[in-house]
């Protein structure tokens, strides 16, 4: 019973979220491929043995496969799910090359590849826009209601009633904008511009780095200023306003994610915060416990991450294919088969190494490593 409850509470929301996002991503590839005249042989959700499927009138096999982590679109001319070319592709007669992906012009191949990540970004924009137009956009005025004693804000000279309008050149409209900047900041000085009695005042401050634990027990290192504001409210926006705010939200999440990745690379943020499959399962279950709206919002955030990760210039990912196409554009001809093969091997090694590292973080986070050590000690 406990196993069934754990599956329904955590694994099932994760599978639902992942299936939707994979479908959106692969549908982006599929639609643009068909638009460019590419024959699509397989559209698969999952990998491995097929559970069930059907053929449409264009000859595409739509299938659900037994391993539910990911999916792929297999084009005519692909040897496998990674879109590597079949051997002796050049031996195919000219009259039969029309629907083969690898014979399409460079700009069409690039469009097909970038369409997957782009679909993830568009999906997030649609989700945010619908939420902002129905439930409303979280809104808290950026006006200081309380300055914590002994905080960075107190030392910097913040006062009750100060309205924060700018942080290091970035305009501020909501308290949520302040959170996005301050929480990502780990020990770097910032310049806050506040309105006080009609005058603009600049207050330099370096947010304090603290460890915070959410209600589910997850620990994060974030920047903290030490101010409190009025209660959060939700502002329902018109369709056009909601769309504009959704684009801004998607951009903000993308920039914040890239900033966090950059901090991990430079060492200013711990890579222990990188979550693997188990961590995403946990986050999906936690979102499901809060409610459907939370799951949908989590799906939008994860969709942005999926689109962003796929654009990294690593062979095996969409960004890796785009890198090869950029080299092809500069050289005037594609890379050789050996170079492509070595590139895909390196890419696969990098992806596997990252997955192992992220999964190790999950095991440490769930204290499974400690349990194993105590068992053998």
Characterization of the model:
It is a single chain. Helix 5 (239-266) crosses helix 7. The chain has 377 residues and is of the alpha+beta class. It has ten helices and twelve strands. 51% of the residues lie in helices and 20% in strands. Among the domains are: 2-36 and 104-134 and 298-376, no CATH class; 138-235, Pdz3 Domain (Roll). A four-stranded antiparallel β-sheet has the order 6-5-7-8.
What distinguishing features does this structure have?
about 50% helix, 12 strands, about 375 residues, 10 helices, 4-stranded antiparallel β-sheet, disordered C terminus, single chain, Pdz3 Domain, two-stranded antiparallel ribbon, disordered N terminus, alpha+beta, elongated
Topology overview:
Blueprint: H1 2-35, E1 40-55, E2 61-75, H2 106-134, E3 137-139, E4 146-147, H3 152-156, E5 163-167, E6 170-171, H4 175-184, E7 190-196, E8 199-205, E9 208-213, E10 219-224, E11 227-228, E12 233-235, H5 239-266, H6 277-290, H7 292-310, H8 318-331, H9 337-365, H10 368-376
Antiparallel strand pairs: 1-2, 3-12, 4-11, 5-6, 5-7, 7-8, 9-10
Helix pairs in contact: 1-2, 1-6, 1-7, 2-5, 2-7, 2-8, 5-7, 6-7
What about the largest sheet? 4 strands, antiparallel
| Continuous helix count | 10
Radius of gyration: 24 Å
Order of helices and strands: HEEHEEHEEHEEEEEEHHHHHH
**Ends distance:** 32 Å
Helicity, in percent? 40-55%
Secondary-structure class: alpha+beta
Q: Note the overall shape.
A: elongated
